[in-house]
């Protein structure tokens, strides 16, 4: 890792945090906090505060500067995440405490401070790695224990929204008013940009099935229907019922284990990176996470995983004195799943190449934009491990066709 020089504004915020946490005559050390390919809409810096008696390990997540801000809604992303931490999680904590929820949703890093100044946006959070939290190896499908743990956590998250909407409808409406649009909303409605991006993504998928004309035809039909898929997902107010995480790939999930030598089954999950959070269907979180990270065997058992999600959702809703069969029955979950699953497949096509590439192969958004290229070229690269990519894509496409999703 490399030493990092904090900006004056960042150092001021860190010094403020140090003072608030009882540090005197403290020293600050900052080093790079992530490898290339681990994070795309921010710069991650590991910060240590010490005063000879105490130590505090933090993560500083700061915004990119330069040309990338003209191509990617960086400011909107940070404003959204700051809002989630400072407003949404505060309201969620209050209502869960009011109803004495036995297993509340609290699966996020502790926030120490933020800055919302233009071009200096940042959040300072606890470093979960210091508590033993680890990321999953993004090149490997998650095992059933990890898939189940994440789905249960999403169920707890969504249950709070459902409960707040039932018990405090006006407060929920106020809270979500600014979260109704995706931060990339204008991109999804820009035909030229989406076509350019989709052509690049689907080009890799078509190459996987060069010797399979039947599947190729099915994929061509899927590609042609993508504009309708975008409209169906982003122009369906009736499906906007919960606050979603919105970015459920494995690098935004961290796991803690009772026995650090046995990482088979996690004891605790933490969900990080809330920049894409919005009010949406709960099924959006499910299709995004599940289709991207599941093995062939887990994919084909998807209904049992949906039932597991719904069991946890129902349990928490009952503790809020809500009737799951009225608020969100399993039949409605399946209806939502079937409505958004095509979007989930498309997101999986996007993410698979990113997940399976080596660090040195991963695209660098700042290099792309500062080099005068269009950010839509982000997926225009070829990963070395084409065999693993092709296998994962074939498993996903086979599952999608067999279940009538494609």
UniProtKB/TrEMBL annotation:
Domain spans labelled CHK kinase-like: 123-319
Species the sequence originates in: Phaedon cochleariae (Mustard beetle)
InterPro entries according to UniProt: CHK_kinase-like, EcKL, Kinase-like_dom_sf
Identification of the protein by name: CHK kinase-like domain-containing protein
Domain of life: Eukaryota
SMART domains: CHK
Cited SUPFAM superfamilies: Protein kinase-like (PK-like)
């Amino acid at each position: 890792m490399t030493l990092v020089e904090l900006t004056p504004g960042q150092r001021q915020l860190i010094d403020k945090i140090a003072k608030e946490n009882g540090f005197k005559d403290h020293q600050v050390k900052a080093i790079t906090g992530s490898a290339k390919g681990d994070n795309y809409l921010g710069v991650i810096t590991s910060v240590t505060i010490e005063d000879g008696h105490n130590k505090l390990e933090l993560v500083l997540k700061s915004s990119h500067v330069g040309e990338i801000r003209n191509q990617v809604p960086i400011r909107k992303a940070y404003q959204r995440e700051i809002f989630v931490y400072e407003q949404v999680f505060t309201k969620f904590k209050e209502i869960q405490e009011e109803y004495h929820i036995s297993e509340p949703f609290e699966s996020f890093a502790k926030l120490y401070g933020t800055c919302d100044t233009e071009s200096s946006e940042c959040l300072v959070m606890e470093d979960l790695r210091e508590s033993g939290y680890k990321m999953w190896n993004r090149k490997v499908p998650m095992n059933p224990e990890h898939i189940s743990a994440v789905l249960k956590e999403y169920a707890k998250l969504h249950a709070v929204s459902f409960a707040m909407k039932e018990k405090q409808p006006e407060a929920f409406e106020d809270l979500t008013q600014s979260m109704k649009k995706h931060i990339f909303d204008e991109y999804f409605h820009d035909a030229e940009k989406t076509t350019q991006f989709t052509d690049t993504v689907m080009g890799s998928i078509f190459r996987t099935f060069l010797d399979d004309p039947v599947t190729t035809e099915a994929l061509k039909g899927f590609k042609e229907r993508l504009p309708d898929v975008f409209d169906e997902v982003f122009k369906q107010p009736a499906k906007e019922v919960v606050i979603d995480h919105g970015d459920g790939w494995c690098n935004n999930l961290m796991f803690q284990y009772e026995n650090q030598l046995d990482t088979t089954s996690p004891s605790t999950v933490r969900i990080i990176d809330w920049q894409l959070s919005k009010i949406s269907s709960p099924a959006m979180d499910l299709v995004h996470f599940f289709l991207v990270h599941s093995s062939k065997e887990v994919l084909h058992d998807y209904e049992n995983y949906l039932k597991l999600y719904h069991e946890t959702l129902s349990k928490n809703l009952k503790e809020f004195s809500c009737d799951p069969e009225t608020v969100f029955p399993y039949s409605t979950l399946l209806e939502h799943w079937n409505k958004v699953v095509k979007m989930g497949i498309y997101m999986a096509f996007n993410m698979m190449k990113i997940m399976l590439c080596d660090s040195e192969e991963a695209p660098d958004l700042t290099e792309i934009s500062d080099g005068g290229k269009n950010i839509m070229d982000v997926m225009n690269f070829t990963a070395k491990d084409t065999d693993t990519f092709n296998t994962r894509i074939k498993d996903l496409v086979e599952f999608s066709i067999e279940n009538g999703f494609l």
